[in-house]
Amino acid sequence: MFILHHYGMSPFSEKIRLMLGYAGVPWQSLASPEMPPRPNIDPLSGGYRRIPIGQLGADIFCDSRVISAEIARLSGKPSLDPANGSDWVQEYAARLEGEVFWAAVLSMSPGIAIRQLLRNVGIWKTLRFIKDRAGVSRNARVKLPSAQQARAIFTAHLEDLEQRVVSDFLAGDLPSHLDFAAYHPLWFQQVVGETPLPADLRLLARWYRRMSAFGHGQDVPITRRDAFAAARDNAPRPLAASHTQDALIGSAVTVSPADYALDGVQGTLVGSSAERWIVARETPEFGLLHVHFPRAGFEVRATAGG
Ligand SMILES: N[C@@H](CCC(=O)N[C@@H](CS)C(=O)NCC(=O)O)C(=O)O
Predict the structure, then answer these.
(1) Domain boundary among 168, 192, 212
(2) Residues 90 and 196 both lie in one domain
């Protein structure tokens, strides 16, 4: 069964929880710590530090775009696969998950942020969390807005979104990946940031309610032992022959995000497609694992000596 490694306050996790609810894919839920180290998933991913991460046996899926493609496949709902959007849809989704996501996070009032952290993680972890995320921001390769700029970006974004919800969903009559990419920054502002949507944006409020109504579907809490057993007791799924043609296949590589939280994963490149890199990791604890990354937003480097 599909396992989601996630934590409550994480917007990208909410994107996937809601998508699983809409798609009707039953899932197992493994609550991760809000910051590294994450003993439930680090040994499986090999060091990718972001959340959410998906897991199907010995296949590990890093980044919500790859996870969305898996949910599309499991549910037979191709509109959930980010690769199936037209050019404008893909460009807009990238903006929502980059500039708009950061605007939602950085426009949050410091008082509310502290209150939420104290409530969710307690006092000691709050201090560690602030230090951890300051490090992520400092090392980011993308330029992050100030709090004031973030508020202006987010307000303009909401007004623009109000003009875009002319159908039931953003790219037509059916929910698509784009709706979930648009949903999670708004969820974060309201649920974690305690800031309601502006009352005059009525179409947006209706779309948001339509989306929220999907809920999270059927999730069963599991433990780290269960996730580890699933990895150990299964082999990675076979690779399509068409995914083993890249010149780098067989090379030792490091795959890392290109924007922020840059920690990379080392292994052997065993698969690639127009959308994905797949890295094999041979581990003493679980045997062979395949770790999947999207191409968009990630870098692959041949590792010295490989
Ligand atoms: N592009 C990634 C972004 C994921 C992301 O930024 N996740 C945040 C939490 S919502 C994160 O992991 N921040 C750093 C951390 O938690 O260690 C995705 O789509 O999954």
Answers:
(1) 212
(2) yes
Amino acid sitting at position 115: R
Give the mean pLDDT per block of 10 residues along the chain (306 residues): 97 98 98 96 97 98 98 98 96 97 97 96 95 96 96 98 96 96 98 97 98 97 98 97 94 97 97 97 98 97 78
| The one-letter amino acid at 232 | R
In the chain, the number of structural domains is 2
- Ligand 1 centre distance from Cα of residue 58 (Å): 21
Residue 44 sits in the same domain as residue 93:
no
Atom of ligand 1 nearest to the CA of 101: 6
Q: Give residue 261 CA to ligand 1 midpoint distance, Å.
A: 8
For residue 284, the enclosing domain spans: 2-77+219-302
Atom of ligand 1 nearest to the CA of 34: 16
Intra-chain end-to-end CA distance of the chain, in Å = 34
Ligand 1 atom index nearest CA of 297? 1
Domain end, chosen from 212, 241, 268, is at 212
**The overall pTM is greater than 0.90:** yes
Q: Decide: residue 249, CB within 10 A, 0-12 exposed, 13-18 middle, 19+ buried.
A: middle
